[in-house]
Amino acid sequence: MTPAKLHVTLEDVAQKARVSLATASRVLNGTTNVREDLRRRVVEAAANLAYTPNVHAQALAGAALRSVGVICHDVSDPYAAEVIRGVLRVADENELLVMLASTFGEPDKEIAYVSMLRSQRATAILLIGSGFEDRAWGRTLNAELEPYRRGGGQVAVVSRHRNIKADTVQPDNKGGAKALAAALLGLGHRRFAVLTGPHTLTSVVERLSGFREGLAEGGIELSDRDIFEGEFDREGGYAAAREMIAAKHRASCVFAVSDLMAVGALAALREEGRSVPEDVSLAGFDDIPLARDLAPPLTTVALPLEQLGEQALRLALSGHPGERNRVRRIGGEVILRESTARRRRRR
Questions:
Q1: Maximum C-alpha span of the chain
Q2: Domain named HTH lacI-type: which ranges (predicted)?
Q3: Most CB atoms within 10 A, among 82, 267, 285, 335?
Q4: How far from each other are the two terminal CA atoms of the chain, in whole angstroms?
């Protein structure tokens, strides 16, 4: 037997067995899809060299090979939390470790986290939440994702990412907002205000576009003076509603493009002494769990949030190298609750 060498490496084993480093790694990690003659050579070489695996490195590699990276805008957002819950359910079924990163809405952080997950050799990368209306960002992100995919990694996104080449689970933001507009028109409302998030977010653009289109089909024009912009969260909804109140807008119904923005709007309206829905009706979008527990419960477009996360990971895990750009569309349902009332015509 060859005298034991201090710090024998996997490269030493591969060289002695006259196989590639990848083949030696597969054999010593217990992978079965290796030719028997190659497996025997690697085992004999490891025994002759008294090779001892680096247990810590194996643990890290094993975790990386059985992991999925999830990147979202804000993990504290109830929308993201419900979607991630669906991801966790499927990850548990497949014995995958979930690594979670929050970008706080910063495009550069999203790119940085993708790069980190590449280095960790995650099995799949999921992007949760709205894409950005930014072609430069899309090109840079694709440049990070392309070598990851070529190496066998899978990518899936929730919500439309116009500039990203990836499998997509796409909620029907535009169609849901359009249906909501029709339902509110059916309650007799004719004067609307819209509280939007930043127009750099694809989901915001789609929901605003759908709502505007739905109103137009009912003969109502939504002008720029009817739209008030804030951040895509509770504080943004509050600020946009305060701006609407200061402008003395005479809307009978306010549409916030997310439930969280609607929560902030409700607080601002109450501070002003305006009752919902007696003085003004209020609607949101998403149907996060909180929407049902508000007083009054919030009219909204219900998306199956957990299902979005489940479908995204299933889509990623079912992919094959070179297969991409598959789309699964998931519709929403208008839920009319007590925050919107039939408009009483004044005599």
A1: 104
A2: 8-62
A3: 285
A4: 104
**Planar angle of CA 89, 312, 233, nearest 5 degrees:** 90
- Report pLDDT digits (tens) over 90-110: 999 998 999 999 988 888 888
Q: Tens of pLDDT along 131-160? A: 887 788 888 888 888 888 887 888 999 987
Residue 297 shares a structural domain with residue 190 = yes
Give the C-alpha distances (Å, rounded to integers) separating 4 from 1, 47, 153, 208, 307. Answer: 9, 10, 38, 70, 55
207 and 167 share a domain?
no
Condensed to tens digits (0 to 9), the pLDDT of residues 260-298 reads 999 999 999 999 999 999 999 999 999 999 999 999 999
Q: Which residues contact 132 (CB under 8 A, 6 or more apart)?
A: 107, 138, 200, 201, 202
Range of the domain at 48: 10-53
- Same domain, residue pair 71 and 163: yes
Q: Are 42 and 13 in contact (CB under 8 A)?
A: yes
Question: Residue 24 sits in a domain of what CATH number?
Answer: 1.10.260.40
221 and 148, same structural domain? no
Domain co-membership, 177 together with 298: yes
